[in-house]
Design goal:
Number of domains of chain B: 1
Distance between the termini of chain B: 41 Å
Largest sheet of chain A: 8 strands, mixed
Number of helices of chain A: 8
Number of domains of chain A: 1
Oligomer: heterodimer
Order of helices and strands of chain B: HHHHHH
Distance between the termini of chain A: 10 Å
Helix content of chain A: 25-40%
Structural class of chain A: alpha/beta
Radius of gyration of chain B: 14 Å
Largest sheet of chain B: none
Largest interface: A-B, 31 and 30 residues
Strand content of chain B: under 5%
Strand order of the largest sheet of chain A: 6-3-7-2-8-1-10-9
Helix content of chain B: 55-70%
Chain lengths: 261, 91
């Protein structure tokens, strides 16, 4: 059953806390993450399905999956001094692959691939204690042509249906966003107004409209990673988002959101 | 509409992107690069101009040749982290 749904920023500076960042802003995002962690303790999930965009870490140009499910025993990732390892909820991962394929999604699956920081930054801050196993769902966001927002929404709706029919208590979490342009000359000028308008829409329960946004628009406003949010939106339907925080830094719109189920 | 920030990586830039990916995600290659950049780049079968742009960290030249902007960004960051040129856990 689906018991909760969230979206979290995964800006690596939130973890690494370099000198370039505004300390108070980072701590406010940490406080929002702490709120998610408390909610997860209340929701008592048996598994956390986390939807993130690979930052060309698990997959390179030798094989570029549009939508992938991590169905191994465990997954591990590193970023500088940080090292993470998480057990996978294998029965749920297998159900998502098998039933996803059954429903017409030509999914890619992996039993071993490095875990990208897009997965472990939110988990670092929000994983309840004791920890629960995860199922990483990959959405290609950085290697064009990416899956369309509509396809991500459809996949999310299927994920929601599969999870709702399962015996486990499952939380869905999107990792990514909001506006940022890493590696481009726009890094220091994210599209914060676009983010704010979108958060208003989500708070009004109009997240489904995102399925109709074009991939070009997401690229232009620095929100290619919103495909992960759109996936979760496919599962939550018209639920009105509770925006825990929107903290725009000089390079990144950091948001934390819950959709009540 | 402006040109896309992230484009379909041209096949001609495969080796260049593979090298950037190794700098970003392969600690052993990154160590070889930091020890002797020219020798490390020789392993990757790159054109002379690509090697030059990598050695000088010329982002625009790399992207113009088809390098993925995110790979350029993160390869550079990982090298700076390794050289101790970034601060960690400053607060």
């Amino acid at each position: 059953m689906l018991v909760g749904a969230f979206a979290c920023a995964h800006t690596p500076q939130l973890l690494a806390r370099p000198e370039s960042e505004d300390r108070d802003l980072v701590l406010r995002v940490h406080a929002a993450f702490a709120r998610v962690k408390r909610r997860l303790a209340e929701l008592r999930p048996d598994a956390l399905v986390i939807v993130a965009g690979d930052h060309i870490e698990a997959f390179f140009l030798d094989a570029v999956p549009a939508l992938a499910v991590y169905a191994g025993v465990e997954c591990a990732g590193t970023f500088g001094p940080y090292r993470y390892r998480f057990p996978i909820h294998e029965p749920l991962a297998r159900a998502l692959v098998a039933q996803g394929v059954e429903r017409g999604f030509d999914l890619f699956y992996t039993q071993e691939a490095p875990l990208d920081y897009a997965f472990f930054v939110p988990l670092h801050f929000t994983m309840p204690d004791p920890a629960v196993p995860i199922v990483p769902l990959h959405v290609n966001v950085y290697l064009p042509p990416q899956p369309t927002p509509r396809r991500c929404h459809e996949w999310g709706r299927a994920v929601g249906e599969i999870v709702r029919a399962r015996p486990e208590r499952v939380v869905l979490m999107a990792s990514g966003g909001m506006s940022h342009f890493p590696g481009t000359d726009r890094y220091a000028s994210p599209e914060l107004d676009w983010d704010r308008r979108l958060l208003e829409k989500l708070a009004g329960g109009r997240g489904g409209e995102l399925a109709a946004v074009g991939g070009e628009e997401l690229d232009q406003v620095g929100n290619i990673e919103l495909r992960t949010w759109i996936t979760v939106l496919g599962a939550v339907g018209d639920a009105k988002a509770d925006v825990y925080c929107y903290e725009p830094s000089w390079h990144h719109g950091n948001a934390v959101v819950e959709w009540p189920i | 509409m402006d040109e896309a920030h992230y484009r379909f990586p041209p096949a001609s830039a495969y080796r260049l992107n593979r090298c950037l990916y190794a700098l970003k995600s392969d600690p052993a290659f990154r160590a070889r690069f930091l020890a002797d950049a020219t020798a490390a780049l020789r392993e990757m079968g790159l054109a002379q101009a690509e090697q030059g742009a990598l050695l000088t960290g010329d982002r625009e030249a790399l992207v113009a040749r088809g390098a993925h902007p995110y790979l350029v960004f993160m390869a550079d960051l990982r090298l700076r982290m390794e050289r101790g040129q970034t601060t960690f856990e400053y607060f």
